[in-house]
């Protein structure tokens, strides 16, 4: 069987914060994994990223088109499906959006012939008529089909990668957090991961030396994290990862530093304890402060992610966030606006807690599609600019982080800051 894998771009939508103007791109790791699985059974595969390529098949006609899409990509994905629908070529849709909204997606876009909900590897294997029982764990999957990619067309964000030539990877699945803004429809709460030998095998088979681990919780299993650090030290890779503030300690971070970790990205979300409690983040402001101190003491840069415009947000909680961000030992910061996603707890709540545009095409964390009661869109934009300015217009912070960043990263930061003035 000939199978074409297609990753659509997001729908065009104006962004409200300048950070998004620093472009970054990465191929769909999920589709590359499915492509390698299909190829391991003898199927012929091709990959198209609509961000860069128009679909030109020439004499290569697929028997099946597999598409993945997040919520803000679903409209463009439907256009791709319509193209093949007219040629009588079946399409199958997977990903987080259709997992959260299967019925409504098929009603709105009947050009999708089939859908796959949840984790795709096992179900897609069965969908193409093969035996999925050979895949007992993540280790059993073949390496993602990186050979299908022209890497010159991709560039990871300079705020998460040391080198212009970096590779983003997902090495684990599941997060034990219960945050109301996050969907766990696909991977759930149970943490599973590549074994350390298998992960290092994958890293060594690539031609990259710098890695950005996209995992929701790369640090979710301390024993695995320690084993990885101890075994990866000799390869002298550089890497960054994401973590909660409540599952790292100083000794572990010292080891991470020796193993090549240069930055940890933390989900801080808010400087208001009331807002943190409402979003069920299950962390305290004191814990955030202590973990960031230990991160800096270990010699690793910290990056904090904040969300503005949360359900229950007020001018006071926004100002609390600005003040908190300005005093904590945090090296880099970015923020988004709350985008209530289908499948999340806050999606239904947002319909009664403020002004909410549930349009799938408008679901973009860099744009405002939800305004809490008592606030206006202009309020959110005003506090957004205040947060960025107060955090980064700090000479001692800028001097500190400039010593650790490459010229590429510094230049990207300068261009981003100019967007706020």
Describe this structure in words.
The chain is built from 15 helices and 15 strands. Strand 9, helix 7 (222-232) and strand 10 (238-243) form a beta-alpha-beta unit. It has 421 residues and is α/β, with parallel strands linked by helices. The mean pLDDT is 90. Helix 1 (29-40) packs across helix 5 (120-127). The relative contact order is 0.11. The protein has helices at residues 29-40, 74-86, 96-100, 102-108, 120-127, 196-205, 222-232, 250-258, 273-278, 285-297, 315-327, 345-350, 377-392, 395-402, 407-418, and strands at 2-7, 44-49, 64-68, 91-94, 114-116, 167-169, 172-173, 192-193, 210-213, 238-243, 261-269, 301-308, 332-337, 354-356, 370-372. The protein is 35% helix and 17% strand.
Secondary-structure map:
Elements: E1 2-7, H1 29-40, E2 44-49, E3 64-68, H2 74-86, E4 91-94, H3 96-100, H4 102-108, E5 114-116, H5 120-127, E6 167-169, E7 172-173, E8 192-193, H6 196-205, E9 210-213, H7 222-232, E10 238-243, H8 250-258, E11 261-269, H9 273-278, H10 285-297, E12 301-308, H11 315-327, E13 332-337, H12 345-350, E14 354-356, E15 370-372, H13 377-392, H14 395-402, H15 407-418
Parallel strand pairs: 1-2, 1-3, 3-4, 4-5, 6-9, 9-10, 10-11, 11-12, 12-13
Antiparallel strand pairs: 7-8, 14-15
């Amino acid at each position: 069987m000939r199978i074409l894998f297609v990753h659509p771009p997001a729908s065009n939508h104006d962004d409200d914060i300048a950070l998004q103007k620093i472009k970054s791109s990465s191929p769909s790791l999920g589709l590359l994994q499915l492509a390698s699985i299909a190829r391991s059974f003898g199927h012929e595969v091709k990959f198209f990223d609509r961000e860069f390529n128009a679909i030109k098949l020439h004499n290569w006609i697929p028997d099946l088109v597999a598409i993945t899409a997040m919520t803000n990509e679903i409209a463009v994905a439907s256009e791709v499906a319509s193209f093949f629908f007219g040629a009588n070529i079946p399409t199958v849709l997977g990903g987080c959006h259709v997992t959260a909204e299967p019925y409504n997606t098929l009603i709105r876009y009947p050009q999708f012939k089939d859908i796959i909900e949840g984790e795709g590897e096992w179900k897609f294997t069965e969908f193409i008529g093969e035996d999925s029982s050979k895949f007992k764990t993540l280790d059993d999957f073949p390496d993602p089909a990186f050979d299908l990619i022209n890497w010159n067309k991709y560039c990871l964000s300079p705020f998460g990668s040391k080198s212009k030539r970096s590779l983003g990877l997902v090495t684990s699945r599941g997060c034990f957090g219960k945050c109301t803004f996050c969907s766990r429809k696909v991977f759930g709460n149970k943490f599973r991961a590549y074994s350390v030998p298998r992960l290092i095998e994958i890293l060594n088979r690539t031609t990259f030396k710098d890695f950005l681990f996209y995992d929701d919780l790369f640090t979710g299993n301390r024993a695995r994290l320690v084993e990885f650090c101890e075994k990866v030290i000799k390869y002298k890779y550089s890497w960054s990862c994401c973590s909660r503030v409540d599952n790292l300690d100083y000794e572990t971070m010292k080891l991470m530093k020796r193993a090549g970790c240069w930055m940890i990205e933390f989900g801080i979300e808010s400087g208001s304890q009331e807002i943190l409690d409402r979003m069920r983040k299950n962390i305290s402001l004191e814990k955030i402060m202590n973990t960031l101190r230990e991160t800096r003491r270990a010699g690793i840069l910290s990056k904090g992610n904040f969300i503005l415009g949360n359900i229950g947000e007020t001018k006071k909680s926004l100002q609390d966030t600005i003040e908190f961000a300005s005093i904590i030992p945090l090296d880099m910061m970015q923020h988004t606006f709350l985008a209530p996603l289908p499948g999340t707890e806050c999606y239904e709540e947002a319909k009664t807690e403020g002004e909410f545009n549930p349009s799938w095409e408008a679901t973009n964390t860099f744009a405002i599609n939800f305004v809490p009661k008592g606030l206006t869109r202009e309020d959110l934009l005003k506090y957004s600019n205040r947060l960025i300015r107060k955090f980064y217009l700090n000479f001692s912070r800028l001097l500190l982080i400039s010593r650790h960043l490459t010229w590429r990263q510094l230049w990207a930061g300068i261009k981003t800051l100019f967007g706020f003035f």
